[in-house]
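Posting this for the archive.
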Amino acid sequence: MIADRLILDKNKGDFKQDKKSEKPIRSVAKALSWRVIGTVDTLVISYILTGEMSIAASIASIDFITKMILYFFHERLWNLIKWGK
């Protein structure tokens, strides 16, 4: 599970890290900070288009969760690619 990978115990070596990649917790932090910015953007656009704050908030909430998860896996996959490092 993702949660198991995020709770790291450096002494036990639970996290297999190569020297050129980031730890998963860094990817989570980056995903969260980016999603806050993206969600505010989605909230504003949704409100402008619908004129309803409750609908805009619903759209922004779903957007926050799904895109954060997608970003995390996107980031982890890019860490496996040696190109450009």
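DSSP finds three helices and no strands in the chain. The helical segments are 2-6, 24-50, 53-80.
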